[in-house]
Amino acid sequence: MSRNKAVDQAGASAPHGEALRLEGVRRVYGAEGNQVTALDGVSVSLPAGSFTAVMGPSGSGKSTLLQCAAGLDRPTGGRVFVDGAELAGDNEAALTRFRRQRIGFVFQQFNLLPTLTVMQNVTLPLKLAGRKVDRRHARAILERVGLGERLDHLPAELSGGQQQRVAIARALVTRPRVVFGDEPTGALDTRSARDVLGLLQEAVRVYGQTVVMVTHDPVAASYADSVLFLADGRIVGHQPQPTAEAVAERMTHLADEVERQRAAAGANMAGANR
Ligand SMILES: Nc1ncnc2c1ncn2[C@@H]1O[C@H](COP(=O)(O)OP(=O)(O)O)[C@@H](O)[C@H]1O
Ligand SMILES: [Mg+2]
Q1: What transmembrane ranges does the database entry give (predicted)?
Q2: Ligand 1 atom 16: the closest Cα is on which residue?
């Protein structure tokens, strides 16, 4: 494929500059007296055309981070910018519109609508956004994910890997600047996972999109350009050019470290309560 074609399909602007910026993002769940700080001041800047994996122990705030960055959840504090524009906070309709224009999201459990065909699932975001339903474009994306022969099938007639590829096509159909995936390979076998990771990588390398993916799998993380490590709602590390081995080792240390810090915090609390 020619370079120009790739740039055309990526959308109006070339993949330059900053795709995503978080400034001191906090998210506190629960009522006073019973609060959980899921994100404790996260600041990060991701360049356009980058592929970032987010890793961390269970409960470290990975999903909360993604949901806040994607406008699916509202931070308690801090600011989020996508493609240079601030995620508008006060108006639900504006936030939804913003999300539909600039953001794609892929879930672990695919979240396809069971009564809609493959083609209908993929064109739905265009309809919801009030955009022209370009079936040729939708078909081209479905061919790209290897499902050009399955347009009229229902999700239940597809394997898990195929369903996730439909979900990726659905996330890409609006040509979003940033595509988020929360454990997009978490429910897949190794081979389907590899297909999905290859498609996400292609979205970055060929189409200039920006991908942010939560995963607990070091092999999946090694498809990314860099890994952010999260612990207790904070970014505690960054690894460029990750290999599966290096990531696995870092995760092991991270789990030990978190346990030590929690034990120390517990001891301090006990001391303070004495
Ligand atoms: N809707 C919610 N209400 C209350 N607590 C929540 C909610 N969502 C997440 N949490 C808490 O916030 C923390 C981070 O959760 P999450 O972002 O799901 O972590 P991860 O995806 O890394 O496993 C956890 O302690 C979790 O229990
Ligand atoms: Mg999660």
Answers
A1: none
A2: 61
Is 3.20.20.70 the CATH number for 3-273?
Answer: no
**What's the pTM?**
0.90
Going residue by residue through the chain (274 aa), what tens digit of pLDDT does each one get? Answer: 333 333 333 344 445 699 999 999 999 999 888 999 999 999 999 999 999 999 999 999 999 999 999 999 999 999 999 999 998 766 888 888 889 989 999 999 999 999 999 999 999 999 999 999 999 999 999 999 999 999 999 999 999 999 999 999 999 999 999 999 999 999 999 999 999 999 999 999 999 999 999 999 999 999 999 999 999 999 999 999 999 999 999 999 988 888 887 788 777 766 665 5
Angle between helices 190-205 and 160-172 (to 10 degrees): 10
Separation of alpha carbons 13 and 175, rounded Å: 11
233 C-alpha to ligand 1 centroid (Å): 10
- Which ligand neighbours the alpha carbon of 183 most closely? 2
Q: Is the CB of 29 under 6 A from ligand 1?
A: yes
Rounded Cα distance, 212 and 226, in Å: 10
